[in-house]
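User:
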Amino acid sequence: MSHLTQIPLETYLLAQQATPIACLVCDHENCVSAARCRNCSAPMALAHQTRSVKKRPHLIAVLGASGSGKTVYLGLLMDMLTRHVGLLRSTARGPLSISLQQTTTTALATGWFPEKTPPTPEHWHWVHCQFNCRRRRRPLELVIPDISGEALATETERSNRYPAIRSLLAKCAAVMILADAERLQSSDHSHDFLTLKLLSLIGERRDERTRGRRIPERRPLAIVFTKADKVDGLMENPREFAESHAGALWSDCRERFPRHEAFASSVTGATAYRDSYGRRQHVPLRIEPHGIIEPFSWLMTELDEQWANPGLAARLTGR
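Assistant: Predicted structure:
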């Protein structure tokens, strides 16, 4: 005797899997089950989180040469905001957004600086957080990537080597530049040239998205001089330091971004060198953060005008 069984075909599940989802960074369509964008390698978790909260986050570009302190600064910033230090506080969107904070704080707690971010996009950190300010009723959705300085340098020399960088520079709502103050004081301006190239690339990508229309640049730019603990007087007057030791970079920032400001920050109170497997490595002795939240807080204040006027924000970011 044969027994017949009726099994309903849930074809809507197949239809959901077949529906493409656009990458948050480059807008390239990917399969729903994809872990990373097949065009720029950005994590597709960002797109899924954006769909779940029904609010598109804004991208913040953090630029700087390799060794300028981007990973340490961003990791410590996220840790301080998570602990509700100051008026700003953040809530991570998914476990992916906590990796940078975990990597940085774990390394500093054990007496080491975190390793440099590898140039491969699969190893970059992407922080998607909801930021709240006690002075604002509406929270902000932001995505802040920690991109390798070596990858940024390669992109300025080889166009479209990293599609994620190209899309970020075109779509970012604000720009933060990190510059090594110790190098600048010693008249080492090798990092300046990379930053100048990146600023030029931002202008090119903006012209492409605006199709040559003359739209005033309203995106804010914060230039942060890192390792300020090793430069006397920098904390008190970062603008004077910018004019004296980074004249070309400061002039270009003012020329391209009318809304700009200079800041100084430091993470350590003292550093030393330690031998590790036959190599001399620079290590922190004391963690004394200064000027970490101030640059980011200024950017958020400047961005208030864009969020208050959705039409203006759409024109500035090309959306």
